[in-house]
Automatic annotation (TrEMBL):
<dbReference type="GO" id="GO:0042026">
    <property type="term" value="P:protein refolding"/>
</dbReference>
<dbReference type="InterPro" id="IPR001305">
    <property type="entry name" value="HSP_DnaJ_Cys-rich_dom"/>
</dbReference>
<dbReference type="InterPro" id="IPR001623">
    <property type="entry name" value="DnaJ_domain"/>
</dbReference>
<feature type="repeat" description="CXXCXGXG motif">
    <location>
        <begin position="197"/>
        <end position="204"/>
    </location>
</feature>
<dbReference type="GO" id="GO:0031072">
    <property type="term" value="F:heat shock protein binding"/>
</dbReference>
<dbReference type="InterPro" id="IPR036869">
    <property type="entry name" value="J_dom_sf"/>
</dbReference>
<dbReference type="GO" id="GO:0051082">
    <property type="term" value="F:unfolded protein binding"/>
</dbReference>
<keyword id="KW-0143">Chaperone</keyword>
<keyword id="KW-0963">Cytoplasm</keyword>
<feature type="binding site">
    <location>
        <position position="154"/>
    </location>
    <ligand>
        <name>Zn(2+) 1</name>
    </ligand>
</feature>
<feature type="repeat" description="CXXCXGXG motif">
    <location>
        <begin position="211"/>
        <end position="218"/>
    </location>
</feature>
<dbReference type="Pfam" id="PF01556">
    <property type="entry name" value="DnaJ_C"/>
</dbReference>
<dbReference type="InterPro" id="IPR018253">
    <property type="entry name" value="DnaJ_domain_CS"/>
</dbReference>
<dbReference type="GO" id="GO:0005737">
    <property type="term" value="C:cytoplasm"/>
</dbReference>
<feature type="repeat" description="CXXCXGXG motif">
    <location>
        <begin position="171"/>
        <end position="178"/>
    </location>
</feature>
<feature type="binding site">
    <location>
        <position position="211"/>
    </location>
    <ligand>
        <name>Zn(2+) 1</name>
    </ligand>
</feature>
<keyword id="KW-0863">Zinc-finger</keyword>
Length: 368
């Protein structure tokens, strides 16, 4: 082999890809030519080694034949070596949580390329709020309207910032490009990067006359009624996402509104999956002989008044038995509903009359 790439990176042949990458990051940072004491020749050699050992296919070819063969791969970089500039610098400095080049994208100053400019339109901030709903609303759904104070597009100019009927002209600060050059210093020296023009906000043009209502901002704060549709079957703690109903941004897209649902507990029912569960306290005589009992349901009118239905208690029921009313539970997204589960309990009297005691003694003699 003309070069031992494992020796260059200081790793063994059995090193994992994570170990190879870790060694590369350390050495590339140490020998970068823009750093004091850096070595350009060594830096190129390190990158050459990493581009072979960091690629599974090339590493297999190198281990077997002592070289790699052309075909595929990424674009050529320094000195003809095959590597990705973005990956190199991103790998070296990703641990800092921000760019190593003063908070700006390093590649904004090289040929005008900027990763940040590839991310699309600017976006307004998201908003979150909590909404208390009744247990019945969480089961069957409903609609609510909330008054929200937020940044919205101007009603007069529609977010353009221009007075209606006003013409636009080229921005004199950025000369219509939408960007301006900024010089920044970093640990690797001084760099020039492209930043969004603060005057035209990246549009490259400004109106001749600014909107008087929003003073050319395109947005302003106002109170807005937001209609919220509560889906049937929503659970406590879940959130509803309203796309584009967050903070508006001139020249960009609005953020989203997230509505967290807080379900008020019910005095009778609780939820288990798509089933509703309730307790029913029946007299011992009715549980022994069987009979009917009127129970409350959630099937009442929308004003919240409970509906009533009769439930048949089978003969010789005992405490802990469960009665199941099918399709009386929580609606499901694909149709159908869960069940209503009724847990039976004995309703014992606080006092016994002499006649009741006599009857119970008679029952006891009968083995009951």
């Amino acid at each position: 082999m003309s070069k031992d790439y494992y020796e260059i990176l200081g790793v063994g042949k059995g090193a994992s890809q994570e170990e190879v990458k870790k060694a590369y990051r350390k050495l590339a940072h140490q020998h970068h030519p823009d750093k004091k004491g850096g070595d350009e020749k060594k830096f190129k050699e390190i990158n050459e080694a990493y581009q072979i050992l960091g690629d599974d296919e090339k590493r297999r070819q190198y281990d077997r034949f002592g070289q790699t063969f052309p075909g595929g791969g990424r674009q050529q970089g320094f000195g003809g070596f095959d590597f990705d500039l973005g990956d190199i610098f991103e790998d070296i400095f990703s641990a800092t949580g921000e760019s190593a080049f003063g908070g700006e994208d390093f590649f904004g100053g090289l040929g005008g390329f900027s990763r940040s400019r590839q991310r699309g339109a600017r976006r307004g901030s998201d908003i979150s709020l909590s909404l208390d709903v009744s247990f019945r609303e969480s089961v069957f759904g409903g609609a609510r309207s909330v008054l929200l104070d937020k940044t919205s597009l101007c009603d007069v100019c529609g977010g353009s910032g221009a007075e209606p009927g006003s013409h636009v002209k080229k921005c004199d600060l950025c000369q219509g490009t939408g960007t301006v050059r900024e010089s920044r210093r970093s640990i690797l020296g001084s760099f020039t990067s492209l930043a969004e023009c603060s005057k035209c906000r990246g549009k490259g043009e400004i109106p001749e006359h600014f909107c008087k209502h929003c003073r050319g901002q395109g947005v302003f704060r106002k109170q807005e009624n937001i209609n919220i549709q509560i889906p049937a079957g929503i659970r406590d703690g879940e959130a509803i996402k309203l796309t584009g109903m967050g903070e508006a941004l001139s020249g960009g897209v609005a953020g989203d509104l997230y509505v967290k649902i807080n379900v008020t507990p019910h005095s009778v029912f609780r939820r288990e999956g798509f089933d509703l569960v309730m307790n029913l306290y029946a007299q011992p005589s009715k549980m022994i002989l069987g009979g009917e009992e009127a129970i409350e349901t959630l099937e009442g009118p929308p004003d919240g008044r409970a509906g009533k239905i009769l439930v048949r208690i089978p003969e010789l029921s005992k405490a802990g038995d469960i009665l199941r009313l099918r399709q009386k539970g929580v609606p499901k997204a694909r149709g159908g509903r869960g069940d209503l589960l009724i847990l039976l309990h004995q309703k014992l009297p606080r006092k016994l009359s002499s006649q009741a005691k006599k009857l119970l003694l008679d029952l006891e003699r009968e083995g009951l």
